């Protein structure tokens, strides 16, 4: 049995009280503790005046959970922060820095997508209130209690990681690493992992805990890696981390958009889709989520954006969740009128990273490109067939 199973069995045997399984144990286990915290959360909620603000925060928390590269578990969500943990030995500093970079970039890229909607109150609120991220990394020992279906972590190091959210670091976007974590790494590995920014020393005195030392790195240099705010279709699929297919369809652009945005029709053209689950009362609204049964699994889609410019070019965007191979990915549909009876449709799949080794990544990207190609062919066939049937009536 695993550690949690041993602890649960011991608790059941003791009638709900902890019993020492082995003399001398203190029920404490080593664990990585990781907290991404949304800076500016309270000010944004109060100042935005948008009824959609809480839903955006929920989307951002989901983005943070999706960006989990280290197979961490979620212990709790506290308003604007998530406590992750991973039992066992600490991850390498290289992996830890990669995790911090990924979660920051996914968070900021999604914000940039929402900010593009210049006509919405939510977009304006984001431009006036700078939401960003700070990250706390700590390594220590915790005890574990199972309270019904909830796993509760306890111990001094839980207090430490939460207290580190209030520190003496200037600025609002940084990654802070406690000395307890850094002491598990070699100085050479630490130096190699921070060539992109400076790792600075700091410490804060906390009541009952004393002085806690840490080092921190500002995340601002990573903003140079963010996707362009102009999310239009990239020429020949040349945008970084994007796959693109396009096809001329012999239906009006407005008709193609109706078919694409109709959740009920998704399983009739998306390759491998066998069914769709969604709330009938909310179909067709931006922000609506739906689930697609796809290749013996299920993936969540959410309609997040719809634009139409003066030349009637349309852009429709969906966020994809629970897609383990491509976490925090987006599917863009660009619809360009050719004439009154036909249009050019582009499907562009944008992803932050691909899970797996380089060989696995290459294979998954090829599979995704084939999936997009088959889907757009089936979309074109469905649109033209439905349009012919409608015109023949």
TrEMBL record:
Xref: SUPFAM superfamilies: Bet v1-like, Nucleotide cyclase
PROSITE patterns: GUANYLATE_CYCLASE_2 (PS50125)
Record domain Guanylate cyclase: where: 32-165
Pfam families associated with the record: DUF2652 (PF10851)
GO MF annotation terms: adenylate cyclase activity
One record GO biological process: cyclic nucleotide biosynthetic process
TM regions (residue ranges): none
Protein name, UniProt field: DUF2652 domain-containing protein
